Amino acid sequence: MTGGAGFLGGFVVEALRQRGASEIFVPRSRDYNLVDRAACARLLADARPDLVFHLAARVGGIGANRDNPGLFVFENSIMGLQLLEEIRLAKIPKTVIAGTICAYPKFAPVPFREDDLWNGYPEETNAPYGVAKRLLLVQSQAYREQYGVNSIVVFPVNLYGPRDNFDLRTSHVIPAIIRKCVAAREAGRDEVALWGDGSPTREFIYVEDAAEGMLLAAERYDASEPVNLGTGHEIAIRDLAALIARSTGFTGRFVWDPSLPNGQPRRQLDVSRARERFGFVAKTSLTDGIDRTVAWYVAQPRQGPGKE
Fold first, then answer.
1. Are 125 and 263 within 8 A, CB to CB?
2. Choosing from 129, 143, 160, 206, which is the catalytic residue?
């Protein structure tokens, strides 16, 4: 499982173990750098898998995408291209690839349907990452058609939950706001600065639900068509911030900075294909998921009150 030591990957590993899987190989990048094709071949030779989850990715929030477009398009493309080619050569029975909601067009009709994936260019701040993941879908479909490779691609919406990345330089919106609110409350500050104007909407899926969706896809789905993985519910970032403030006990105000990017205007998925093809329905409400995430974060050791 590439990315098995990462955020989503850790929960997929736990879900596999709960299902009785005893031989799970989790490569580390220091041992198998997937940008190196020889390392991809060596990984498969060492692991000899029956099933591969390709979850490894170079990811981050708007700021990280804005600062690293070249790195994101190259590494996310080349890792997948080389790994799937080596999977083909090794005749691995099945591969599950994680795409990204960032692959959808900037102005895709809401809710996003899988058939609309190619009807426009992604939102500019994360387009290099999104296009790289689109490429892996094309490769997966082409390899199934020409070589009979059994690979599937699922497109999870924005993930969140315990063990997320809370580094403000690279984190996504939920952990970033949680960290800022907790720091402000602990330091007695009554303001928190946030990017944009709060108007964009996003859909979020609790990481344990996403892991379950990945496993159901692995168990029950074998087709070329991409599949969305989400909840089907969107929330404005402004309302999300209020939800996080309540959960963290922050009672001050948010100061929005419209000079910083909003990202894609709206994100909400049509999740009917996942329900129909492999019976996946997300179980965790956003309120419950945020409460669990906040509880995990505040229990972690930090440098001191108010540290961001």
1. yes
2. 129
